[in-house]
Amino acid sequence: MSKGKQHRLRIGRYSESGRIYLITFACYKRRTVFDSLWKGQCFARSITALATDTETWCWVVMPDHVHWLMAPSGELNLSRCVQKLKALTTRSLKAEGSDKRPVWQHGFHDRALRKEDDLRSMARYVIANPVRAGLVRSVRDWPFWDASWI
Length: 150
Description:
This protein is an alpha+beta fold. It has 5 helices and 5 strands.
């Protein structure tokens, strides 16, 4: 899809403060970026820094993408929250000596949860991604995730 068509898909994107969203965004050209503990820690520090702007229910960092179950709660809208998280993570990775290539693809995918959606089931689904991808047998064996009630 051309960049112009992608931009038109985002026209009219609206986010509600307090509304829960499942966000997915990918590493640049689906390149494996998060392949070491320190890189996962860079992401974890970045998402923690957004605590005043978002309510995070859970997240999981896969080798080449991220899933984040969150609600904007501060002054930032959904797009700004994702942009800020990507920027903080990129800055942290580069400060720690990661290569100079771009970290993230442009944009993200979002899905607003409905009132009838079960938040805990959705969170379990998110953090089980490494198991479904065949990276580990148990989510306990994957170090790059967190959930608010654990």
